[in-house]
Amino acid sequence: MAAPVQASAGCSADEALARLKAGNERFVGGQSHVPHLQEEVLADLAMGQQPFATILGCSDSRVPPEMVFDAGLGDLFIVRVAGNVLGPSIHGTLQYAAEHLRTPLFVVMGHEGCGAVKAAVASKFHGAAQRDRISILLQNIIPALDHVDPALPPDALLSAAVLASVRYTMQALQTSDEGQALIDAGRVKLVGAIYDLQSGRVRFLD
After folding, report:
1. For residue 41, what are the contacts with CB-CB under 8 A and spacing of at least 6?
2. Alpha helices, H only, the chain
3. Which residues contact 174 (CB under 8 A, 6 or more apart)?
4. Which residues contact 132 (CB under 8 A, 6 or more apart)?
5. Are strands 189-195 and 105-111 parallel, antiparallel or unpaired?
6. What is the CA radius of gyration of the chain?
7. Does residue 9 surpass a pLDDT of 80?
8. Stated pTM of the model
């Protein structure tokens, strides 16, 4: 049996995941308790950071991970990009988190109603045209939709596409040389998640 993934600060991957789940429960229940910043907190953080989890999430303004997980400054290392897609700079940032910050838990978090995924669905299944730079972004999402049924009702189709996109990004991380080495060595744990805009609840994937 593999040893639990452990962070440099002494927090295991399972403990980190439990902290995220507990924080989201506080957020959903209106009981967020992150205090106002104090000078000594800022002074400590200025000396260095030891986040307990890395989050790859969407840039959507309605999905701020610190609030969603009721986390304070220095708790989470966050990478946000439309559609929570991978690219060279994203890969590099995540590798930095693994190698230098040694966060034990990596979360790929999509969200219901994602505009980037919706645009990818429109491009793949309906031939919708997009501006050049947006099209480049969507090329990181469209391959995830290969096994999504385009005959689904619109809302169900978008939900299925969001889930497929998260799993596609997770697979890309798991099968990369550096990701596979970190997971095989028990250095990190990778999980997927979907944020619900209406309820504020995060559903962690099996």
Report:
1. 72, 73
2. 13-28, 39-46, 65-68, 88-96, 115-126, 132-138, 154-175, 177-184
3. 180, 183, 190
4. none
5. parallel
6. 17
7. no
8. 0.87
Amino acid, res. 19: R
Domains of the chain: 13-32+49-113+170-204 (3.40.1050.10)
pLDDT top residue among 20 and 46 = 20
User: What whole-number distance in Å separates Cα of residue 168 and Cα of residue 77?
Assistant: 21
Give the integer Cα–Cα distance in Å for 20 and 32.
12
Distance CA 39, CA 73 (A): 12
Phi/psi for 42 (5° steps) reads -65, -40
Cα–Cα distance, 183 to 170 (Å, whole number)? 12
Q: Average per-residue pLDDT in the chain?
A: 91
Burial 143-172 (b: 16+ CB within 10 A, else e): ebbeebeeeeeeeebbbbbbbbbbbbbbeb
Pair 107, 148: CB distance under 8 Å = no
Residue 180 has pLDDT above 80, yes or no: yes
Residue 81 identity: V
